[in-house]
Design a protein that fits this description.
There is one protein chain. By secondary structure, the chain is α/β, with parallel strands linked by helices. The protein folds into 3 domains: about 5-120, 3-Layer(aba) Sandwich (Rossmann fold), CATH 3.40.50.12160; about 130-370, tm_1862 like domain (pyruvate-formate lyase- activating enzyme, Alpha-Beta Horseshoe), CATH 3.80.30.20; about 375-430, Beta Barrel (OB fold (Dihydrolipoamide Acetyltransferase, E2P)). About 35% of the residues lie in helices and about 25% in strands. It has 13 helices and 18 strands. The chain has helices at about 10-25, 50-65, 80-85, 85-90, 105-115, 160-165, 170-185, 210-215, 235-245, 260-270, 275-285, 305-320, 345-370; strands at about 5-10, 30, 40-45, 70-75, 95-100, 120, 140-150, 170, 190-195, 225-230, 250-255, 290-300, 325-330, 375-385, 390-395, 400-405, 415-420, 425-430. Strands 2-1-3-4-5-6 form a 6-stranded parallel sheet, sandwiched between helices. A 5-stranded mixed β-barrel has the order 14-15-16-18-17. α8 (about 210-215) packs parallel to α9 (about 235-245) and α12 packs parallel to α13. The longest helix is centred in the C-terminal third of the chain and has 24 residues, at about 345-370. About 40% of the residues are buried.
C-alpha cells in the first residue's frame, strides 16, 4: 500500500477533513497519486447535505470497480456516517467506511482491510488525538482551522446533526496554538470552520466565538481572518462589534437565511423571523458598511407557496448579497421535512431556482462593477485558473481578483490592484505598486 488518491465533495469542512486524511497517510510513508487509476488506496470523502451528490458517489463507486488497478476503496465523510454498513452491503468494491467523527482512524481502517476485513468505523465517540501538525495543507497562503464540530440546531431539512453529531468546541488555546503554527509557516490568512461556528464556547474558559475571533486576529503574522458558517440566532452584538473593530477580520460574511417567509422559517425550525434577520443585517451594516455578504437559500421547501417564494426574492433584492448559494429542497434521511406534506414539484423547484439566479446574478454583477476604478489589496493565492500569465487572489471581502503577473510579486504577497473590469463572480485588474510584504513564503 504505497499510493493514495482522495476525491472530495462538499463544504470547507470536507475539504479540511481531506487535508487531515492526506496528512495521516503521508505520515505513514504513502504518496499521493495523480488519479484513482494510479492509486493503491482511493478515499471518497463525501457530503450528504443534498441527494444529488450522494447519487454521484454511488455512481463513482461503480466506476472505481472497473479500474484495472483494483484499488482499496474507502468511503469517508457524511455519507459514510449516514449509510454505514449499507455501503458495505451494497458494493464489494467498498472495503471500509469512516465517519467524519473518526477521521483520525483512517490508518486503523486500512490495516484492518489489509488483514482481510471489511470495516465500519462511525459514530462520535472519542477518536485518536487531534494532531494539527500532521494536517497536509493544500495552500501555503491560507490555512483552515476547525474550531467547532457538529450542530445542535436540528433544522428540519438538515442531516448535519445526524452525520457530524452534537456541537463540540475546541479549547481556545488549542486553536491559538494551531494559528501560531500556521503563521510561523508563512500562512497569511486563517479561515475558521464550523457548521454553526458562532455557537462556539470554549470548554475550558467559556470564551465566546467573538473572543476567539479577536484572539486569532492578534496572532503575529496573520493578516486576515475569515469564518464560516454562522447562524443568525447566535449572532450577538459582541460578534458585530468584533467585526467592526478588528481590521484583520475579513470584510466578508456568509450568513444563511434559507427562506424569506416566516411560515417556512418556522417549518424549517430556524428559530428566527424574517424581521429579525433583516434587523441583524442592518446592525451589521451600520457597524461595518463595507461588509460583503453571501447567503444560502433553499427553494421549494415543502409547503412553499408562490407568495412564500416571492418573499425570498424580496430579501435577496433588498439586502443585495454579493453571492447567493441556492439549492432546491432535497429530502434527506432522518430529517422531519422529508415526511412533510405539500412537497413542491421538481419542475416548480427548477423554475424558482432559475428566477432566483437571474436576480442574484444580476445583483452580483452590479456590485462587482461598482469596484471598477477602485484599488484594493489582494492576497495572491496562485496562478489564475484560466491562464498561467495571471495571478489569482482575493480581496479583503473575499472577492476573486485576477491580474497580470510581473517580476515583482510572489505567492503570498499582498498587492494593491486597480480593478479594470468585472464579471459575475470575479474581478480583473492590474498591480499598481510593489507587494506590501516583500518576504516570500516557504512551502508547507
Amino acid at each position: 500500500m504505497n499510493t493514495f488518491f482522495i476525491e472530495t465533495w462538499g463544504c470547507q469542512m470536507n475539504i479540511h477533513d481531506s487535508e487531515r486524511l492526506e496528512g495521516q497517510l503521508r505520515a505513514h510513508g504513502m504518496q499521493a497519486a495523480k488519479s484513482a487509476a494510479g492509486a493503491d488506496l482511493v478515499l471518497l470523502n463525501t457530503c450528504s447535505v443534498r441527494e444529488k451528490p450522494v447519487h454521484k458517489i454511488l455512481s463513482r463507486i461503480g466506476e472505481l470497480a472497473l479500474l484495472p488497478n483494483k484499488p482499496m476503496v474507502g468511503i469517508c465523510g457524511c455519507v459514510a456516517q449516514q449509510e454505514g454498513e449499507a455501503l458495505l452491503k451494497r458494493s464489494r468494491t467498498v472495503r471500509f467506511v469512516l465517519g467524519p467523527g473518526q477521521i483520525g482512524r483512517v490508518r486503523e481502517a486500512v490495516r484492518a482491510v489489509e488483514q482481510g476485513k471489511r470495516v465500519q468505523i462511525t459514530g462520535f465517540d472519542a477518536e485518536e488525538d487531534y494532531n494539527f501538525k500532521t494536517i497536509f495543507r493544500k495552500s501555503s497562503t491560507r490555512g483552515m482551522i476547525t474550531v467547532i464540530e457538529g450542530c445542535n440546531e436540528y433544522c428540519t431539512f438538515c442531516v448535519v446533526p445526524y452525520t457530524r453529531g452534537r456541537e463540540l468546541s475546541r479549547p481556545i488555546n488549542d486553536v491559538l496554538s494551531e494559528a501560531r503554527t500556521l503563521a510561523g509557516l508563512g500562512v497569511r490568512e486563517i479561515e475558521l470552520l464550523g457548521q454553526t461556528i458562532n455557537a462556539y464556547i470554549c470548554p475550558e474558559s467559556d470564551a465566546s466565538f467573538a473572543t476567539l475571533l479577536g484572539r486569532v486576529a492578534e496572532v503575529p503574522g496573520i493578516q486576515r481572518v475569515r469564518f464560516v458558517t454562522s447562524h443568525p440566532r447566535h449572532f450577538g452584538d459582541d460578534l458585530v462589534q468584533a467585526i467592526a473593530n478588528t481590521p484583520k477580520i475579513s470584510r466578508y460574511l456568509h450568513l444563511p437565511f434559507q427562506s424569506g417567509s416566516n411560515e417556512i422559517l418556522k417549518r424549517m425550525n430556524r428559530k428566527y423571523t424574517r424581521e429579525e434577520y433583516l434587523a441583524l443585517i442592518q446592525r451589521i451594516r451600520d457597524a461595518a458598511p463595507e461588509i460583503h455578504l453571501s447567503t444560502d437559500v433553499i427553494v421549494g421547501f415543502p409547503g412553499e407557496s408562490e407568495n412564500d417564494f416571492r418573499q425570498t426574492l424580496d430579501i435577496i433584492e433588498s439586502i443585495r448579497f454579493g453571492q447567493v448559494f441556492a439549492f432546491a429542497f432535497s429530502p434527506r434521511p432522518n430529517t422531519p421535512a422529508r415526511m412533510y406534506a405539500e412537497q413542491v414539484s421538481e419542475d416548480e423547484k427548477k423554475s424558482r431556482l432559475h428566477r432566483l439566479f437571474d436576480i442574484s446574478n444580476a445583483i452580483s454583477l452590479e456590485l462587482n462593477r461598482e469596484l471598477v476604478g477602485s484599488t484594493i489589496p489582494v492576497l495572491i493565492d496562485g496562478e489564475s485558473r484560466r491562464t498561467s500569465e495571471d495571478w489569482q487572489g482575493r480581496g479583503e471581502d473575499n472577492r476573486v481578483v485576477n491580474f497580470p503577473k510581473s517580476s515583482r510579486e510572489r505567492l503570498g504577497d499582498i498587492v494593491d490592484v486597480l480593478i479594470t473590469r468585472a464579471g459575475h463572480h470575479s474581478l480583473y485588474g492590474e498591480s499598481v505598486d510593489s507587494p506590501s510584504s516583500p518576504q516570500h513564503l516557504p512551502a508547507l
